[in-house]
Design goal:
This protein is α+β, with helices and mostly antiparallel strands. Helix content is 39%, strand content 20%. The chain has one domain.
Length: 59
């Protein structure tokens, strides 16, 4: 998966390399995997936690 992600970044999103990327993360598997892949490629990332209240109120 990492190699495919790196290939996609290199070929379609090369402008992201060297840029600061803000990732909205909510804790679901898709945003966590995206964060992990960006971290593995040593992209400059910052995280913004988003709570969409999809799981209802916490008790």
């Amino acid at each position: 998966m990492l190699k495919a992600f790196q290939h996609h970044i290199n070929n379609s999103l090369s402008f992201l390399q060297g840029s600061r990327i803000l990732i909205a993360i909510y804790g679901g598997p898709d945003s966590v995997v995206l964060t992990h892949l960006c971290h593995e490629l040593k992209l400059k990332i910052s995280l913004a936690h988003c709570n969409f209240n999809l799981r209802g109120p916490r008790k």
